[in-house]
Design brief:
Oligomer: single chain
Largest sheet: none
Radius of gyration: 17 Å
Order of helices and strands: HHHHHHHHHH
Shape: globular
Structural class: mainly alpha
Strand content: under 5%
Number of domains: 1
Number of helices: 10
Length: 190
Amino acid sequence: MPLETRIRAALARGAAEDAATEAIRGFGPQILGYLTRVLGSPDDAADAFSHFSERLWKGMAGFEGRSTVRVWAYRIAWTAALRVAGDGYRRRRERLRTSMASRIAAEVVTRTALNGRAGADDGMDRLRSGLEPAERALLVLRLDQRLSWREVAEVLRREDEAVDEAALRKRFERLKEKLSRLARSQGLLA
């Protein structure tokens, strides 16, 4: 049974903790890779992943189903990335209380670390390091995770502020041009 179906079935039977466990374990490696690429640091990604896991765990019972669970999870991860990127050192390094979500998050981080870095090294990683987190997020969501423009808009929207899909496409075009310039300047393109 597909992951999305298992999560929704658990929710339908009122087992929000089972649904959250499925979501964190199932989407966790992808989300951790996304956070690592967006934040550019495995330590910051692990912190954001802990925040993500806690928020997903607490919010699963209230999942309204307006999007897929996967898109909703990426939205939570994006919010966690913004929090970690915007917080000072002291607040970023405070440990979350130990909970079931924290234990599952630690399991995913450890399992992913044992299988190699969350995102494979490639020429894109060098180029991504020259981008802002929002630019990295757009790139990873669209290219690596293959989300539709509608799904990317849902992930990147702020609270009640919608993101226009056409504006995202234009930002993406400008981002491709920027990457092209960076690639040339680093000798990756002729």
